[in-house]
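Q: Can someone sanity-check these two? First one:
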Amino acid sequence: MVKITLGGKSMLHASPSSFVILPALAKIVCEPGWKWQKREKPLQNYDLFYVWSGEGTVVRGGVPYQVGKGSCFLFRPGDHTSATHNPQKPLVLTYIHFDVIGEVKDIPLPYRELTETVEFEHMLARYVRLFLVKTFAAEEEGQLILKQLMIHLLREDQVMPVERNASNQLTEVIHEVANYVSQHPGVSHRVEDLAARAGLSPRYFSIKFKELIGSSVQSYVIRARIERAQHLLLYAGMNVTEVADALGYRDIFFFSRQFKQHTGKSPSEIR
């Protein structure tokens, strides 16, 4: 049994080899009369418990949770649990029991509702499939998947539940625009055009871009250009004038000045 304390390593930094795979794992469709009785003894290990579909009630430490698709628990050693479900809409569950060698802290929250489930469900399915047949190196891959699952939950826990849906969509849109800028560094990107691409007002787009990407739109556009310029100077055999022209600079002196501001060197020093 793993003891959870304030000391020890973070779950995020636990090595995959420190995850101990236990034989209790499955994806099941619960029978109409199924229920998970509360036991006298608490859980002895971790139990990742995920609902694929159905309706039910899960109780952890005396607190009831109404569950459905995307409901995800990480029960911990010492937890008292029980559950029932609607026989008309039986629960389809994956449960994975495991341990972690040594003391751990910064454990994922006991409960969350996942809205983006495809990637998580793929990892769960892969994990269970590994042990249905005697797959070569199943334990080693299983440890890697367990670590990925924990990272996924820790990442989810960073986002406030109320913000999650809108936040995921907005993050995706902003990152798509940032990728577009990186892939087209020679285009003269205006904030208005990029905001329109994201379907947002220029002001709101600028605020969210800086919040999510970590720099202003203008700084990001310039950095993308300068990084591309470095690549062209170093690997494409182009001279300074050709690079400036390719990236939409009309003034070679302005290009050289901007380049030096960002890299600490003039373009001619790079070649």
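And here is the second, same format, sequence then tokens:
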Amino acid sequence: MQRMNGLGPGAMLRMALISLGTLVLIPPQLVSMRLGAGHGFLFTRLFHRLVCRGLGVRAVIRGTPPGPGEGGLIVANHVSWLDIPVLGAARPLSFVAKAEVATWPVIGWLSTLQRTVFIDRKRRGATAGVAVEMGQRLSDGQAVVLFAEGTTGDGTRVLPLRSSLLGAAHEAVRGESEAEGEVTIYPLCITYLGYHGLPGGRAIRSALAWHGDTELAPHLKSILAAGAVDVELAWGEPIRMGRKLSRKEATRLAEIAIRRARQEAVTGRSRA
């Protein structure tokens, strides 16, 4: 990674405050994790809010998000590492991530503190183990975020969603009664609009996205230098996946909702 040099005083100060705040929040988070699965979200949420404040991220919410205490599977597109603090600052939740993230310096450890569910795509049968963990959390009324594209996009296009983990989550929570065994899916479209309240075009959205071979350090440097990033979180109508709706159909409906929201965001219709 490239060094974080060339930043102005303001950006350096924000970086220092984020680092200091992280060090302060880690000990109580470690203690809360020892208390059990129902604890630990307070400090992770404070951390994500600290990151968003330090990076100047300003979120606009469109649609109706899940209410306080409402669990479910949040199926979202993936644009950047910024997606994590943006969503984590909004409500208590956990994420599903590829196993390689757990090996990344610093980020991997912070992801573990976030109670991230890691999946090893190279191991056959790994999905089943992840599904059990996801199912347990969903049954406990927790919100779990699944970036169903499987990778990050360029900020403008929405990639096809993968249905395998949605189906696995459904199997994991299936019960004997008709009311059980259904999973509420909340489609969510994340769109980075521009800087300082000024809408940007495709080039700006691509610059804000973390995709392809872009390294983390220069991308973080550009975000810090910008000072204010505008992002829209557009929630679609909840989808009940289960007895009457297959995982493939639920995935199709979620993808339609996310694509529609992205189109409205990039054309400005969502802000009309």
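A (reply): Looked at the second one. The CA atoms of residues 78 and 152 lie 5 Å apart. The mean pLDDT is 82.
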